[in-house]
Write a structure and sequence with these properties.
The complex is a heterodimer.
Chain A: H1 31-40, H2 45-66, H3 70-91, H4 96-100, H5 110-135, H6 144-165, H7 170-185, H8 193-208, H9 212-225, H10 252-262
Helix pairs in contact in A: 1-2, 1-3, 2-3, 2-5, 3-5, 3-6, 5-6, 5-7, 6-8, 7-9, 8-9
Chain B: H1 2-15, H2 22-52, H3 58-62, H4 65-85, H5 91-119, H6 125-138, H7 148-163, H8 180-202, H9 206-226, H10 236-253, H11 258-274, H12 291-307, H13 311-330, H14 334-353, H15 357-376, H16 384-400
Chain lengths: ~270, ~400
């Protein structure tokens, strides 16, 4: 991190909207906020259709420059996750109000919905692959922990919201699992205790959701990939199971997600 | 009744009594001195303006109604006394004379205050120039195309329409372009302002300069308000504005005081923003052909400032240039906003080469806001996607050329 641009008085470091973000959503001009305005600025279906192309380009841009250096690695991980959350809000009419402060909901056309779903699934797929690339040391500019948390959070939310609000993503989620299992089965490097613990929680959730076969496969493969390095689990990664958004808005929605996803009915 | 009659008779008799001539001689000589004093006072601001600024400003003094009326009263008083030399004076004339004398002294005092006002161009001259220009602008009327040059200009504009689908303007549209006569008159009235500003930069009179550029800006904004419904994107007044402002900026850059250029850049920004409400050809298709030429002045000066490593003079134009881009994007002039973004990218490239991280701040903030506004306030054009692709293309080099902290 020695190359953070911190020229005194220039605000080219954390305040630079081209690679960073402002926590206040209304002041933020970062790339994830561009995704948000692209999705929610207009109720005109033609504009939304065009804007989805722009959103796709912005997400691709984030992915393309994600592994450029440490700064992008750190910042763009958050921006990618936040973009995923905006895309989730776009396809899920039941959470859109809480996610965007919008006073009214305009239901997008099915065509636009499918377009957004495709971008979201590609994003989730990218996050998973990036995590495994980190583990494999193919991408060296970020820590695997930092990518695992948003990647898993996105998958938790996809499974949870797909089941709760019937988003029609079952097939895409199956494909994500297939990709995850495939990457785990050819994993050359080991995962640490924290990552293993995260997978263990994930597997128990999958079992509760009825993905028993996948859960067993993932569990078996992660047990195999785990190498006891004599370390301990980083508790910091479990403060919030579902990673919080980077912009400031009512966090009660995410508290509810945590409760819905991780608290079993008999607890 | 009888008493009243007798008082009037007494007063009348008193007024008709003969009066000595010596009083009128003294009064006439006092008035002659007052007239000399008056002319001396009037000459002070006239001489100052002619010497310092431009002889063309004399016309404003020539038609100052207050000065003329004061002069008339003084001359009438003087000639009144002269006439009395050749007649048999009575008390009534003496009273009138005393009144005129007193009035003349009051007028001299009034004239002193007037001269004080005249000495300050921001209180006297600038409002008069603005008033004249506003009178000319009131005459801006939709007119039929008159001469072949106008026809040619219309033809060129129509060629532009070929590229702008969905925005056809009737060629016989009455409100096509502002008459050249009006523009010439306006430029003529504004020319002294340029001379004054040039002069003020060299004499380091910053306060007055601010007032002068303020007047210049107000007149320019009034022009664009007046031509709101005119369709032509070709505008001879705009060319004059660009040339004048460019000259002024270049002159101001030679001054040690950065506030001259700062005032000029702010004025350019405000004039540019005033063009956004003009319904000129292309405005429905994401183009603003009026704001971009003015904005280009700032881009050139920003690049010049970066290359010269003059951060103050690079930062201000970049900031204002970016503001114009953001406003264009906000108002639905997407293509012109992206043109500004391209300009910002060019500035960023120079900043990177010359390691100017200060000027990069407004560049990057403006780029992000332009992109944000384009998405937040969308307007559909025929090639809607193009500008967003351009924005991403602009982001790419900006991201890869991010300045890094030098290793310690």
């Amino acid at each position: 991190m020695s190359n953070i641009p911190t020229d005194a008085g220039t605000a080219l470091s954390v305040g630079d909207p081209l690679f960073a973000y402002e926590a206040n959503l209304f002041k933020d001009r970062g790339l994830s906020t561009l995704v948000m305005v692209g999705l929610f600025s207009s109720s005109d279906d033609t504009i939304v259709d065009h804007n989805l192309d722009v959103v796709r380009d912005i997400v691709s841009f984030l992915m393309q420059y994600h592994n450029k250096d440490h700064i992008n690695g750190k910042m763009f991980t958050s921006l990618l996750y936040q973009s995923g959350l905006w895309l989730l809000a776009f396809i899920d009419k039941d959470i859109v109000i809480e996610m965007t402060f919008s006073k009214q909901i305009t239901l997008p056309l099915t065509k636009n919905l499918n377009k957004a779903k495709k971008i979201l699934i590609n994003l989730a797929q990218y996050m998973i692959n990036t995590y495994f690339d980190c583990v494999e040391r193919k991408k060296k500019h970020f820590f695997s922990h930092d990518v695992q948390s948003p990647a898993m959070s996105l998958i938790y939310l996809l499974i949870h919201l797909n089941k709760k609000h019937n988003l029609g993503l079952a097939e895409d989620i199956d494909n994500l699992f297939a990709g995850m299992v495939a990457r785990l089965s050819i994993l050359q490097r080991s995962i640490d205790e924290t990552e293993h613990a995260s997978f263990a929680i994930f597997c128990s959730y999958l079992k509760r959701m009825g993905y028993t076969y996948i859960a067993e496969q993932v569990s078996g493969l992660t047990d195999k990939a785990k190498k006891d390095r004599g370390g301990s689990i980083h508790r910091l990664y479990y403060v919030n199971h579902i990673k919080r958004p980077i912009v400031t808005f009512d966090s009660s929605l995410f508290e509810q997600f945590d409760k819905d996803i991780f608290v079993t009915p008999n607890e | 009744m009888g008493n009243n009659q007798s008082i009037i008779d007494v007063i009348f008799a008193h007024l008709s009594e003969p009066f000595g001539k010596s009083f009128f001689e003294t009064a006439a000589s006092i008035l002659a001195t007052a007239i000399v004093l008056f002319f001396t006072l009037v000459l002070i601001p006239i001489q100052q303006f002619v010497n310092r600024y431009s002889p063309s400003l004399l016309r404003y003094f020539r038609r100052d109604w207050l000065t003329i009326s004061l002069m008339v009263v003084l001359l009438v008083s003087f000639f009144y006394h002269l006439i009395l030399w050749f007649s048999r004076p009575i008390y009534l004339y003496a009273y009138i004379s005393a009144l005129l004398l007193a009035l003349s002294f009051v007028l001299i005092v009034v004239m002193i205050f007037r001269v004080i006002k005249m000495m300050n161009p921001s209180e006297y001259l600038f409002p008069k120039i603005q008033e004249d220009c506003n009178k000319i602008l009131k005459e801006v009327k939709p007119e039929e195309l008159q001469n072949p040059i106008d026809k040619l200009s219309q033809l060129e504009d129509q060629m532009k329409q070929v590229f702008i689908a969905g925005e056809k303007v009737d060629p016989n549209e009455r409100k096509w372009s502002v008459s050249d006569v009006v523009v010439k008159q306006l430029i003529e009235k504004m020319l002294p302002l340029k001379s004054i500003m040039m002069n003020l930069i060299t004499t380091a009179d910053y306060e007055l300069f601010t007032k002068a550029i303020g007047t210049f800006k107000e007149i320019s904004i009034s022009y664009f308000v007046a031509r709101k419904e005119f369709k032509s994107s070709q505008d001879s007044f705009l060319i004059y504005l660009c040339e004048t402002l460019n000259d002024l900026v270049k002159t101001a850059e030679g001054s040690g005081n950065v506030y001259y250029t700062r005032s000029l850049f702010t004025a350019i920004r405000e004039i540019s923003l005033s063009t956004l409400s003009v319904d000129v050809i292309g405005s429905q298709s994401g183009y603003n052909y009026l704001a971009t030429p003015l904005a280009r002045i700032m881009k050139e000066r920003a690049v010049f400032g970066v290359v010269k490593r003059d951060m103050d003079r690079a930062y201000d134009p970049t900031l204002n240039y970016g503001h114009i881009g953001c406003a264009l994007a906000y108002n639905g002039f997407g293509h012109s906003a992206v043109e500004i973004a391209e300009g910002l990218k060019e500035i960023a490239t120079y900043c990177h080469v010359f390691k100017d991280t200060v000027t990069l701040v407004p560049v990057r903030n403006s780029l992000a806001t332009i992109f944000y506004n384009l998405l937040r306030y969308p307007k559909l054009y025929t090639n809607y996607d193009h500008l967003y692709r351009q924005m991403i293309e602009i982001y790419e080099p900006c991201l890869t050329s991010r300045p890094m902290q030098e290793p310690h």
